[in-house]
Amino acid sequence: MSTRENEEVKEAMLDRRSPTAIRCCKITTEIIVILIVCGILSLGLSVIIWTVYDIIVPPNVTNTTLEPLEAINITTTTIPTTTTKPLACQKRIIGFFDASDAKEITARRVSKLTHVVFAKIPMDYNGELGIETQESEEAFEKFKSTAKSVETDVEVMISIVGKTSYQEIARNSEYTGEFIYSVEKFLKDHQIDGVDLNWERENYPNNINLLKELRIRLNESQLISVTLPAPPNSGATFHVDEILKYADFVNVVSMGYYDTDRTKTAPISPLYPGSDIGKTLNVNATVKEFTEKVKNSEKLNIVIPFFARIWRNIADVVEPGKEIFRKCQNEFSQIPFSKMKEDGWTKHTTSWDKKSMSAYIYDSETQTFLTFENEDSISQKLEFIKDENLGGLWIRFTDMDDDENTLLNSVTKLC
């Protein structure tokens, strides 16, 4: 059979398909096309509808049901609030306020400081903290509001001094718990940044554990400082390296080295020895002893006293050429620098002891002797802080300055 004949046979066979089969094929093709078109239209319409809905009807997030945080049992950590306020100084300038008079707490003074410390919050025999008088309450509220109102970034702290020793609190687990709870609550209730523990008159074998437990309870952003006496004449035993595992810095009571000797006058805070017997009774010797144990001098602050020591009925010098050491017949007293100025002492000629780097006044007519800090002695201490890479200084007490802030202005030259 020829090729032509084969093609005719095939066409004849196709022509014999049933009409039903042909219709089914066409319908299937049409359905597929319709489904494709509808799918495209459906997708486009859904996008348009939801876009318009979101514009007209905003989502109602308040209807979202969340499980309460208490039920989730999450332990949260408070993150310190960031601040745009500038620092008053890159070194620490810590102002302690005795705060017996609220009017002495001024924004002008606070703005020159990096830390302000309200002294002193009483601690009861069982470790509980509390402000006892209406006058103290008013001073404390003035202190807080003033510190938070200044344009510089100031850390606000309290200093605690107890009716009993910290050692007694540390020995009793019940008192320890009450103390730590009370400190934490006080800082939280008053929105205070930290606490200073005054250990000037302590022997501290057990105090380290108390300090450790306090650090564990407080948030890491909250400061802990410890005020320590200057060795070796303090008679206290402590391990400053252990203290600084839990405390952020230590305020050293680098003054009053000759307080136990009532037979002669002496500089209040000598930077260097003023006599052969005072080789260890000075700021330099104290810092050297501390830094040998600490290895991190930036955590140490030396003191700048804002008051004068005054003796009366003064006799001759103890030794020729050492005018700052004179025989005395009675104990000294203490007056604020502001009172010293009011009484006219600043108009007297101020003498300078080159060995101890200390200022003093001796009035031979009234047989009165004063030792105190002035611009020259403070300047020497500021250079010492920089040379020894110390963290800074602390002031006892800032509110003892005069109205012109003479001493505080000298201190701020550290910056």
UniProtKB/TrEMBL annotation:
Entry keyword set: Glycosidase, Hydrolase, Membrane, Transmembrane, Transmembrane helix
Assigned protein family: Belongs to the glycosyl hydrolase 18 family.
SMART domains hit by this protein: Glyco_18
Domain of life: Eukaryota
GO MF term list: chitin binding; chitinase activity
Domain GH18 span(s) in chain numbering: 91-415
GO aspect biological process, one term: chitin catabolic process
Cited PROSITE patterns: GH18_1, GH18_2
InterPro entries: Chitinase_II/V-like_cat, Chitinase_insertion_sf, GH, Glyco_hydro18_cat, Glyco_hydro_18_chit_AS
Keyword Nuclease attributed: no
Annotated transmembrane regions: 31-53
Gene3D superfamilies: 3.10.50.10, Glycosidases
Source organism phylogeny: Eukaryota, Metazoa, Ecdysozoa, Nematoda, Chromadorea
Record bears the keyword Cytoplasm: no
Protein name: GH18 domain-containing protein
